[in-house]
Structures are given as C-alpha cells and as structure tokens.
Amino acid sequence: MNLQELRALFIEFFSARSHTVVPSAGLIPTGDPTLLFTSAGMVQFKKMWSGEVSLPFTRVVSCQKCLRASDIEQVGKSLRHLTFFEMLGNFSFGDYFKHEAIEWAAEFVTKVIHLPQDKLYISVLDEDEESYNIWKNEIGMSDSRIYKLGKEHNFWGPAGGRGPCGPCSEIYYDLGKEVGCGKLDCKPGCECDRFIEIWNLVFPQYDAAPEGTLKPLKNRGIDTGAGLERLALVMENKKSLFELEVFKPIIVEIEQLFSMKYEENKTTFNIIADHIRALTFAIAEGIYPSNIGRGYLLRHILRRAQTCAFEMGIKNPFLYKLVPVVAEVMRDQYPELIERRESVSLVVKSEEENFLRTLDKGTEVFNQVISEANTCTLSGENIFKLYDTYGFPPELTYELAKGKGFESNKLEFEKLMELQKERARTASKFEAKDVEWQVANPATSGEVFKCNHTEFVGYDTLTTKAKIVKWRNPQSPTPNPQSPSLFELVLDRTTFYAESGGQVGDCGRIYNDNLEFDITDTQKLGDLYVHLGSLKRGNINTVENPAASGDDVICEVDKSRRKAIERNHTGTHLLHSALRKVLGNWVHQEGSLVEPDRIRFDFTHFKPIEQQEMEKIEHLINNWILENIKVEISATSYEEAVKEGAIAIFGEKYGEKVRVVQIGDISTELCAGTHIRATGEIGILKIIAESSVHAGIRRIEAITGDYALQWLNKYESELKAISNKLGVPVFETQQKVNALIESETRLKNRLSQFEQTQILGLVPEILSKKQRVKDISVLVAEIPSSNIDTLRLLADKLREGEKRVGVI
C-alpha cells in the first residue's frame, strides 16, 4: 500500500464516521503569530476548542503538511525523524471524547491496516485512569502493554506556548530489539528507535495562557496525529523511513549525482533526501531562505544538507536538481509542486551558490582554527569570529566541530552575541543614555505630572493642544537650557507619528507664546512618543514655560511632508498588491521604508523582475490611482481581520485591536501607518529601481506625487540634451546611440588588428635582446601596448621554438 492509498484509507474511515474532510492548511499558520510553521494537524483548528470562532463542524479528518525542526539533529541518523512529513488526524470540537477516539484508533490499526496486536504498546498519562481503563477493559490490551508515563511524555502542547492542550495516549509499534538500545528496561518512551510512536491521541481539555496557567476549554475534544510515513514504515515492515517508496527516487538521483552508493553513505543521503522535501514544499508556498524567521530556518535546513555534501567532496550546487524529483514523487497529492518546480529550483540554486562561496572560505578558516587549538573545545570567540567575520552560521560550526571530535563553547558564543546586541542598543537613540529626564512639575499644584503613555491623535488632525511631560538635552549630562542642541520632549498627547512599521517619524513644530521647538524627528520609547528638535525660542526652564506651569503647547505637524509620506505609504500597499497579482501570491513583504521622497519595498521573489513584468506592475498601480479608489480604515480584532482576508506582516507585533487599511477590493492590510483618503491623491507612482537584497529577496524603489513629476521632468530634460547633441529627435536617440556604439566597436577592432600587426613585427628584434644568465635565457623588454589580447598573442609567439619560461 503506497502513501496515496494509505492516506485515502484513513480519510475514508473517519469520513464514514461523520467527519468532515478538511484539506491541508499551508505551512504558514494563518493568523497564528506564535508559530513559524504548521507543525501539527491541529494548528488550523486551535481556535475551535477555545470557542474563539463559531463551529462550522464538530468532527473533522485531515491529512496535514507539517514542517518541524525541533529534532533536526536526529534527522538522517534516526530511522523515525523527518523535517517535513504528513500528519493524519481526526478531531472533535465539543463532540466525542476519549472512548470514541481510543476505540476508533484501535479499530483502524488492528482491523483496517491489520497491524499485529502483539507488536503494539500503549502509553497514558500516569494521572489518567480513564484512558488506562478504556484500553484495558474495553479494547482488551493487557497490563503489560500499557505504560503509565509522566507529563514529559504524555501531556501534549500547547503549540506555540499557548492555547489548547491536555493529556494524551500514544500508540507504539515494536520494531524489534535489533534497532533498540539494548537496555533491559527499554520501553515505550525510550529515546532509541525500537518503540516507534505511530499515533498520538490528545485530549484537549485545557487552555494554556502565556504565563502558564491552565483553564478549562470551552469545547473540549479530540486531537489526534498519526505520522503517514511512520504508519507506512510499520505496514511495510521497513527498518527506516528512508526505505519507503516516497524516498527511493530521491536517493537514486543522489547516487547518480554523487557517483556514490547509498549503502556506504546512508546518513548523508538521508539528510539530503529529507531536507530537499522540506525545502521544496516550503519554497513552493513562497517561503524563501533569509536571515530572519521562517527564512532563517529554511536557510539552516539547506545549509545543513549542503555541508554534508561538501564534507564528501561535493563542491557544486546539486540540491536544485532534486527539486523536480520531489515534485514528481508527490504530484498526485500536491500537483502545485509540478507547476512551481522551475521557480523552486532557481531559488535553491541561487541559495546554494551563495552559501558555497561562504562555505569555502569559512571552512578554510575553521580548519585553521582546529589545527591551532590547544584543547578539544572550540572557543566561543572563534565561533563568533567565524560568524561575525566570515558569515559562517554557528549551527554549522557546531556540526563540523562535532565531526572533528570537538565540543563547542556555545555559552561563551551566546554571551559574545549578547554583547554585540548590547553595543547596538547602546548606539540607538533612546537607550543607555546617562542623561536624566527633567520631569514636569506644575507650580500650581506642586505635583509631578505623571504620564505612562502618549495618546496619538494624528490620524485625523495635524494640530492639537498638549502638555510637556518631561524633556532632556541628550548631548550633555547637565542639560543646558540655553544650548541650541537637540532636545527630546515627551508629551501627553501628540499629532506627530513616531517612526514604526517602516514609516519615518513626523517633523514640524511645538510652540506656544513663550517657546518654540523645531521638531526634526519623532521616535517611540515604549508607549511614549519622543519628539526630537532644537529650541528656537524661549527658555524651557523658566517659570513661564509650559513644563513648569502646566500650560498647553500646540503640536503642529509639517503638512506637506506628512502628505508626501501618506502618498508613499498608500503607494506601498498598491505596490504589494500589484506584485502579488503579476508575480504570484508567494510574494510577501519583507521590509519597507516610507519617507516623503521615496518608497523602498523589500519582498520575497526568486529572480529579477523582467521589464515586461515591471511595466505591467506600474500600469496596474497607476490605473488604480486614476480610479481614485477610496481608502477605508477600520479597527477590529486581529482574529477577525485575518479571517476577513487582511494581510498581516510576519514579525510585526499586533495587539488585540488592529487597524485595517482597505483599498477597494485591491488591498486589505493590517497597518498602523498614516494614509491618504483616496488613491487619486497619489497622482502618479514611478518605479525607479529594482535590485537584489540577498537570495530570494528583491527590492523596489519608487516615487510618487511631486517627487515623481520632478524625476520625470529631469529625465526628459537630460534626454532632450542628449538628442540635441546627437542632432536627432528624442524618439530617434536610441537608434542613433546604437549606430555610434557599432561604429566604435568596428574602429576598436581595426585599431586592435593594426596594433597586433605592429607588435608582432617586433618579435625578431625582441628575441635578439635575450641574455644568458648561467644556463638560462633571460629576455627583458618593454612592450608599447595596453591591450591584454595583444600581449597574450605576443606571449604565444615568444614561446614558440625552444622551451621557455616567461613572465609578461
């Protein structure tokens, strides 16, 4: 029975028991910022047990794509661990509970796929007498086959640190003593490969809060997970997951690429076969290797596979050649892999090429460090040097060191990394400063004016009254009220947007009758807004000033600058949507910078954007601008926004209430930035640059409004100046330039041929100048040529005849 048949059999079994068949969710968990990847079948259903959403069904069966790297060090070495795998599962939300879950699991494994009962063992939580009695009294398992284990073995979850969790009961299959640890007390739960867990029956009945407290779930139920590959392993009586048919074509291809046999290189081949499956599925969903978040994990997976091959002498990209094999093997269940195999291969190849350059240099330095080591422990300082200077990932250093019989001082490395982060924090604007804040103390009340957060009112107005809460002069330990240097002001409320989410901080002025500040930037310090600026008028320490008296000041944001920023911010949303429509839904924002004079937008994509694609993107955006589509802004819960299809940026922190920016049916994103009221206010958007940030991440720079008009006018002016010098109309400039380039090329070729003839004519004269030094002929000559091709030709002529060694 192949995986396709086994998958179908499981789904049919539970479908016949009134379970709704739900397709696999993506590898990126929707609306769950606690997880990098979907790591279990229950992830897409978490909110159904807690009662956060209405129940569209109460019984579900699914086969879920999963990516889990918690046991990555065991992959390839253990016969039971995989990075990417498929998880079969049946689920209940406020419906059936332990009796049905245990009864159906026992029926499926013994009567449907006919696993021998004498090979099966059960574990339950030591406190869970109900599950123990069901297995013993209702299913008929003997005492000797049921093990009571502690919470470290038989209490599951929660995924991501919070949410549904509860006790569980696991079904194990005995693969035999020959793959065990050999200990007399070897039993289910042992870390060896003998007892392989094939099905975990979880009974979610608690809701875990982030601080660790457990509350009863609104809809207690069932969450089971059976590894598809593990079930196939025991059904086929194999000794390793990598003996399954799903891996064989991949391993055969590796044998051909390496000209090596699997039997002699099992561990390495297993690692590569597993890792390329994980990479293929993840990249096909638009998750690209990078230095942060999900991308970092993918990069680690790829580099682990590449390092294994590198140690075997394979120093060329090869993983990308395995992508089509994975796509072909999995095409019946996941046909989208066939459609995307070329693009996935390009991403993998690009990442391989980049890493091999790093690996070559880093390995050279690593080997030097090892050869000079006085102990069998690699110091944290050396690990940090390899990482900080040569870009060599610490995980790979640990693996290489282990292969050489060395321990790694990970603790010392982590301390050095923390020191580096601390240095970066010290260099930031508001941290680690010795200057104390001067706190406002209204003379009228004699009480300190306390404020824990700044109220932002700048979405709807650019001017408001406020009070200064505290201030300081950051350039002097003793603030000088007469100094024209920077001041930092904290107000109780403000219209100034503080830099966040890629949007720069506002500028403007803060003033009243007695003083005036020219504000050049606004930043966040926790929940406070800090206004940076210089004192233009007045004395902040006098009794007449608002900090001392409690009088109001007026916040006035630079209107034209804010408007330019808003045009650009709304422009980024249009750009994001256009990129997804033209290039594909795998495009995701990786970063942005929104300034008054430009947009910088980083996004996931595996290759440069072609000119035709760029024109289509720009055309789409400007059509939307011409349509003058209304920009609607609303506030709602994070869960509701994501449910309605709003795009959330991975890595951003969202509260319970979020701000949704919707532009017709074109774009819906979670965004706290400021925006225009309708797209027509943008005027025009012009893309001026497209480049690579690193493998899998591209960058677009664009301009809007007046800045776009100025850029186009300058472009036109320079083009006209060129056409005037060439003496042709503007639209004939390219044709004229091409003709001049062709003419120049012909002249250069003629000049080169003439020079070569002249130089080669000097050969007899040059050879006549040779001298004898002992038994060696020495020839010294100065050649009047700057053409390297001519010098090469001359060198060939001088080498003819007797054997010579020459330095030209």
Summary?
The protein has 808 residues and is an alpha+beta fold. The strands form 7 sheets. Strands 1, 2, 3, 4, 5, 6, 7, 8, 9, 10 and 11 form an 11-stranded mixed beta sheet that branches. It has an 8-stranded antiparallel beta sheet with strand order 14-17-18-22-21-20-23-16.
Keywords:
alpha+beta, 11-stranded mixed beta sheet, 8-stranded antiparallel beta sheet, 38% helix, globular
Distance between the termini: 70 Å
Helix count from the secondary structure assignment:
22
* Unreliable spans: 425-432, 443-448
Helix/strand-derived category reads alpha+beta
Overall helicity: 25-40%
Oligomerization status of the protein chains = single chain
Q: What summary fits the major beta sheet? A: 11 strands, mixed
What would you report as the Rg, rounded to the nearest angstrom? Answer: 34 Å
* Percentage of residues in strands: 15-25%
Q: Roughly what is the average pLDDT, rounded to an integer?
A: 86
C-alpha geometry: globular
Number of beta strands? 32
Can you give a write-up of this model?
The chain has 808 residues and is an alpha+beta fold. The protein is 38% helix and 22% strand. The protein has 22 helices and 32 strands. The chain is globular. Residues 425-432 and 443-448 have low confidence and may be disordered.
Sequence-ordered SSE layout with sheet pairings:
Blueprint (H helix, E strand, L loop, with lengths): L2 H13 L4 E2 L24 H5 L8 E9 L16 E10 L4 H15 L7 E6 L3 H11 L6 E4 L1 H4 E2 L6 E12 L20 E8 L3 E3 L5 E3 L4 E7 H8 L12 H11 L7 H19 L8 H19 L11 H7 L6 H37 L4 E2 L1 H11 L3 H10 L3 E2 L1 H17 L11 E2 L15 E2 L6 E4 L1 E5 L13 E6 L1 E2 L13 E4 L4 E10 L2 E10 L8 H4 L3 E5 L1 H25 L5 E6 L4 E6 L6 H16 L4 E7 H6 L13 E7 L3 E4 L14 E10 L2 E8 H22 L6 H28 L2 H5 L3 E3 L2 E3 L9 H12 L9
Parallel strand pairs: 1-2, 4-5, 12-13, 15-19
Antiparallel strand pairs: 2-3, 3-11, 4-7, 6-7, 7-8, 7-9, 8-11, 9-10, 14-17, 16-23, 17-18, 18-22, 20-21, 20-23, 21-22, 24-25, 25-30, 26-27, 27-28, 29-30, 31-32
Helix pairs in contact: 3-4, 7-8, 8-9, 8-11, 9-11, 10-11, 12-14, 16-17, 20-22
